[in-house]
Amino acid sequence: MVAEYPSLPRLFLDAVDGFANPRAQMNRTAKGWEAISAKEMLRRVAGLSKALAGLGTQSGDRVGIFAPNCPEWHVADFAIQGLGAVVVPVYFRESPERLTYILKDSGARIAFVAGEEQSIKIAGCRPALPALEHVIRASDSGNPGAAIHDASLGETSPHSTLSYRDLVAAAAEPEVGEYRRRADEVTSNQLATIIYTSGTTGEPKGVMLNHANLSSNSRDFTGDFELSSSDVALSLLPLAHVYERTIDYGNIFRGVSIAYVEQPESIAQALLEVRPTTMAAVPRFYEKTYANIIEKGHRERGLKRKIFDAAIRSASAAVPWRAHGKSVPWTVKLRWWIADRLVYSKIRAGVGGRIRIFSSGGAPLAPELAEFFWSVGLPVYQGYGLTETSPVVTFNSPKMNKVGTVGRPIPNVQLRIADDGEILVKGPCVMQGYYHKPEETRAVLTPDGWFSTGDIGRLDADGFLTITDRKKELLKTAGGKFVAPAPIENLLKTSPLIANAMVVGDRRKFASVLVVVNFAGIEEEARKAGREFSTAAQAINDPWVRELMSREIERLTSSLAQYERPKRFALLEQDFTYANGELTYTLKLKRRVIEERYQDTIARLYADVEEPHPEPAG
Question: Which residues are within 8 A (CB) of 600 and not within 5 positions of it... i.e. 6 or more apart?
Answer without folding.
Answer: none
